[in-house]
Design brief:
27% of the residues lie in helices and 24% in strands. By secondary structure, the protein is of the alpha+beta class.
């Protein structure tokens, strides 16, 4: 449930900060190392480099005015980071202002179970 909530938050943020007509892409993949990676990539407004180190701080908002418009509290990414830490995972963020962002949750191989044929029916 926690991971579902964290992944949903990343997707919701991408939708919230991507203008109408923009694109949001969700991806799950197994890396060569066996780690699992869930990424949310958008072509939205992006984030300036000076904000990157503080993105996961509680109540930190890149643009307070825009956050009021979109309903942001500044807690979402802090919660995502907390959940990922509880699952021995990490959050990687790459962003370019005016071009978009990519948020990836990387779970270590020891936390990934291979899917079985029976799981495909669920």
């Amino acid at each position: 449930k926690e991971l579902h909530s964290a992944f949903a938050n990343l997707a919701s943020n991408a939708i919230r900060y991507t203008p109408a007509g923009g694109k949001v892409h969700l991806r799950w993949q197994l890396l060569a190392s066996g780690a699992g990676e869930f990424c949310v990539e958008d072509d939205g407004i992006g984030i300036a480099p000076e904000h990157m180190p503080r993105l996961t701080e509680r109540f930190y908002r890149v643009d307070r005015g825009r956050s009021r418009e979109t309903g942001g509290t500044g807690l979402g990414l802090a919660i995502v980071k907390h959940v990922l830490t509880r699952h021995q995972a990490e959050l990687k963020v790459v962003s370019t202002p005016g071009e978009g962002s990519c948020f990836c949750a990387v779970l270590p191989a020891r936390r990934i179970l291979p899917a079985s044929v029976d799981d495909a029916d669920d």
